């Protein structure tokens, strides 16, 4: 038995290029290795990314057309239900309430009955606002959404909204765009990861087409659907949003959705006030989420079939709509009025309370509709009320109620969904007010902080979390991708020779010396080249005759990795080859054994990450002239030891 040191094996660093799919070395380690390489370093993009990008651009244009059709369908149903006329023009149900009187209650009930029937005999997945269901398919089902959702979701949402449902069109079109992307991904021959990109591209394109907010849509896809930030996913989604927004410009113009006059940049006291407003709205967003799901729990206790719940929710929508007509329908004009300061304090308070009552009961009943527009209305009204209050009590603060409304609108979404960057960028893109960016960042971050402190799940994740789905809440760089194999592998490797017989090796194993207790041993030929790996179990297997040499026993080429591959590539290689250890070879001489990497070495490499996250210490001490304390210095992975330094 020999060690690498006895064979004068070199220690050099290596980095190969190509795909991440690992291939075993041939016994000769010659031409086959040169042709196939090893698990090669992944590139940022490849030709498949170009293919998915091209499909995503077409998908983005298709999602924009679907968004236009959906808004026309909502307009058609609204006009038929409230005005008795055939028109696809976008109309507000509020103007029809004085003429309809109490008959207005029956219209949302009828819409709820139709949605309930569609959910019962079409697909139950059309219930709710769609984003949690899309997240669940991404996390558990390789982004495979049933194709019928592509048709049922927009139709059911158009019926619910067109009959007075207090929802926005953005949630259904996001869900529909995602379903369309998933459908295309199921027709084409793509991987699960590529199908996820198509789903996210369709969903983000739908949001871009509704709000003309492509950057916010991309960030939304990253924060709520992709759960990653990689070029191979970011590029297709971004270009899909560009394509969707371009189609929107052609169909509906380039004006911001919530146009506002130019705003003045805030002063110091005003900025502090906006941050405080964001924190208060963040607190309210937590209770908003809890109340919505509390109402949903109450519906679960009703002694009737869930198919009838949307009709019961429709009763609440109709009754509230009779007293507060502005709560009916999408209410985008309400948001524009709020951020432009057109509503009085009393009108804001009434609209906020009534919209929340109508929306929370209707959404809790399981009907089909979105959450973004209602949240923006509620949050915007809250922010505007607080802004007006501060202006009345402390006019010298310089608080603008319109900026306060903008902060409230974005902060409630940031708190309820914890999509912080989406909320900030969305409010900016839909109003085109650069002076609001700093207040938005401060207010939304404050809301995000309060939400993260008080609430485990969000309005987007609570539903699927109750079904046992664990949703990623943090997006961090893969630590294993930052550590190279050469820094984690064991280099003091005990090796065997191809010329040794089983009888000789078995006697050595029975001696139970520390060197003989390993579970795997690389086998070298007479030139010191690795021929394969034999496990302790194979060496002691009685079916092999003791006269056999180890060279005759080696039937499988070694599964190898370079010392400059990342631990992520090595771990993927282990999984692909169903092995628990890899032979580590050098760069300049890939025939040469450098070490062994085991699953335990990969786990041990996490020690530094855990220590950096959990261990606190003072590195500089001013009393000693800023001299570092050696005992507090961060210890890395011992190079060549395969173990984390204590």
UniProtKB/TrEMBL annotation:
Query: What is its membrane topology?
Result: Multi-pass membrane protein
The question of whether Chaperone is a record keyword is answered with: no
SUPFAM superfamilies tied to this protein: CBS-domain pair, Clc chloride channel
Entry-linked InterPro entries = CBS_dom (IPR000644), CBS_dom_sf (IPR046342), Cl-channel_core (IPR014743), ClC (IPR001807), ClC-type_chloride_channel (IPR050368)
Gene3D superfamilies linked to this entry: CBS-domain (3.10.580.10), Clc chloride channel (1.10.3080.10)
Q: Which residues form a coiled coil?
A: none
Q: Which residues form the CBS domain?
A: 489-550, 554-612
Q: Name one Pfam family in it.
A: CBS
Compartment(s): Membrane
Please list every transmembrane segment annotated in the UniProt record, as residue ranges.
49-80, 100-119, 197-222, 234-251, 263-287, 307-331, 343-361, 373-394, 406-428, 434-454
Bias class Polar residues marks the residues at 1-10
Where are the stretches annotated Disordered? 1-21
Q: Which UniProt keywords apply?
A: CBS domain, Chloride, Chloride channel, Ion channel, Ion transport, Membrane, Transmembrane, Transmembrane helix, Transport
Q: Just give the chief location class.
A: membrane
Q: What is this protein called?
A: Chloride channel protein
Tell me what organism the protein belongs to: Dyella agri
The organism's lineage is: Bacteria, Pseudomonadati, Pseudomonadota, Gammaproteobacteria, Lysobacterales
């Amino acid at each position: 038995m020999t060690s690498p040191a006895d064979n004068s094996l070199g220690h050099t660093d290596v980095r190969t290029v190509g795909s991440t799919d690992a291939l075993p070395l041939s016994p000769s380690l010659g031409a086959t290795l040169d042709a196939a390489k090893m698990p090669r370093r992944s590139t940022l993009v490849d030709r498949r990314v170009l293919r998915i990008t091209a499909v995503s651009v077409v998908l983005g244009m298709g999602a924009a057309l679907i968004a236009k059709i959906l808004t026309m369908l909502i307009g058609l149903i609204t006009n038929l239900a409230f005005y008795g006329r055939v028109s696809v023009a976008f109309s507000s149900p509020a103007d029809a309430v004085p003429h309809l009187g109490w008959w207005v209650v029956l219209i949302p009930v009828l819409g709820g009955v139709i949605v309930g029937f569609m959910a019962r005999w079409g697909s139950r997945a059309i219930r709710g606002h769609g984003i949690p269901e899309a997240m669940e398919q991404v996390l558990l089902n390789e982004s495979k959404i049933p194709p019928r959702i592509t048709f049922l979701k927009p139709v059911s949402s158009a019926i619910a909204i067109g009959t007075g449902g207090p929802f926005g069109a953005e949630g259904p079109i996001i869900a529909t765009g995602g379903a369309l992307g998933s459908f295309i991904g199921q027709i084409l021959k793509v991987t699960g990861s590529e199908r996820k990109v198509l789903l996210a591209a369709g969903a983000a394109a739908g949001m871009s087409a509704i709000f003309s907010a492509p950057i916010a849509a991309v960030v939304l896809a990253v924060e709520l659907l992709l759960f990653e930030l990689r070029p191979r996913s970011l590029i297709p989604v971004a270009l899909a949003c560009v394509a969707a927004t371009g189609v929107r410009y052609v169909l509906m113009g380039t004006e911001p959705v919530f146009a506002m006059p130019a705003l003045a940049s805030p002063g110091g006291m005003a900025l502090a006030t906006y941050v405080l407003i964001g924190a208060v709205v963040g607190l309210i967003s937590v209770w908003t989420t809890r109340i919505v799901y509390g109402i949903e729990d109450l519906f679960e206790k009703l002694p009737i079939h869930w198919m009838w719940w949307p009709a019961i929710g429709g009763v609440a929508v109709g009754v509230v709509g009779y007293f507060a007509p502005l709560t009916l329908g999408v209410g985008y004009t309400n948001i524009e009025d709020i951020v432009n300061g057109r509503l009085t304090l009393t009108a804001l308070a009434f609209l906020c309370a009534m919209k929340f009552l109508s929306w929370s009961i209707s959404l809790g009943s399981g009907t089909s509709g979105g959450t973004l527009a209602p949240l923006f209305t509620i949050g915007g009204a809250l922010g505007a009320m607080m802004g007006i209050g501060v202006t009345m009590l402390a006019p010298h603060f310089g608080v603008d109620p319109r900026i306060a409304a903008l902060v409230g609108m974005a902060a409630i979404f940031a708190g309820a969904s914890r999509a912080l960057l989406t909320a900030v960028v969305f409010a900016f893109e839909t109003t085109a007010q650069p002076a609001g960016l700093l207040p938005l960042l401060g207010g939304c971050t404050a809301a995000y902080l309060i939400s993260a402190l008080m609430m485990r799940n969000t309005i987007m994740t609570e539903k699927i979390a109750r079904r046992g789905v664990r949703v990623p809440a943090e997006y961090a760089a893969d630590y294993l991708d930052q550590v190279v194999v050469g820094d984690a592998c064991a280099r003091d490797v005990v090796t065997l020779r191809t010329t040794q017989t089983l009888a000789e090796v078995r006697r050595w194993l029975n001696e139970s010396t520390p060197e003989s207790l390993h579970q795997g041993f690389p086998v070298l030929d007479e030139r010191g080249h690795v021929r394969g790996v034999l496990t302790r179990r194979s060496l002691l297997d009685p079916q092999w005759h003791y006269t056999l040499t180890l060279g005759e026993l080696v039937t499988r080429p070694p599964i190898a990795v370079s010392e400059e591959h990342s631990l992520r590539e090595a771990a993927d290689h282990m999984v692909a080859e169903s092995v628990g250890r890899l032979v580590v070879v050098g760069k300049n001489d890939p025939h040469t054994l450098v070490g062994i990497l085991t699953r335990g070495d990969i786990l041990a490499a996490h020690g530094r990450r855990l220590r950096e996250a959990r261990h606190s210490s003072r590195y500089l001490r001013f009393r000693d002239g800023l001299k570092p304390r050696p005992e507090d210095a961060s210890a890395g992975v011992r190079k060549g030891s395969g173990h984390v330094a204590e």
